[in-house]
Amino acid sequence: MTDWVLHLIDSGGYWGIGFLMVLENVFPPIPSELIMGVGGIRVGQGRMEMLPLMIAGTVGTTIGNYFWYLVGLKLGMRRIKALVDRFGRWATLDWGHVKALNRLFERYGQVIVFGFRFMPTFRTMVSLPAGLFRMGHIRFLLWTAAGATIWNLILAYAGYVLGYNFREIDKYIGPISTAVVVVIAILYVWRLITWKPSATKKD
């Protein structure tokens, strides 16, 4: 994956960075750490500049997240209720949980979207409920872009400082990502076995 990312960045420049960051958020297995880290290396080499790199990375991240926001918006609460009623057991979710999440997003949606930008895996997943619970478009985009700007700057600056050694991080990203997926799978199986629907009445 590293060689493919490097080729796309070197051939596409800032457009390549933006495109990869869109893909990273639509298909999370592509690591933003590698994309922005390599971008930072190119800044250190004088082949890119930090400001347009940050703009490309943040715009790409925001577009990728907006895709999942629109998916959630399109689904809507009515379709989700039908899905929860039918498949809630397998998602360990009932309508009471959905309503509780809805209230949470109504009160703290911007904090949740911003904070989750710094969490592996969940930084993309949070966009779906944000759309589902109809968080405002502008509010979603602004807080997503704000969190993405900080995270991308950290990654780009790390690449700038570490230089070529940053490529070694890619050797660890894969196993760490796999470990996270395994832990999530174990937790899901445990919750599936022990889950019981809440006593909250449907409405």
UniProtKB/TrEMBL annotation:
One of its GO terms (cellular component) is plasma membrane. It comes from the Bacteria. The chain crosses the membrane at residues 12-30, 50-71, 140-160, 172-193. InterPro entries: DedA_domain, VTT_dom. The keyword Transmembrane applies. Keywords: Cell membrane, Membrane, Transmembrane, Transmembrane helix. Its main location: membrane. It is found in: Cell membrane. Residues 30-160 form the VTT domain. This is DedA family protein.
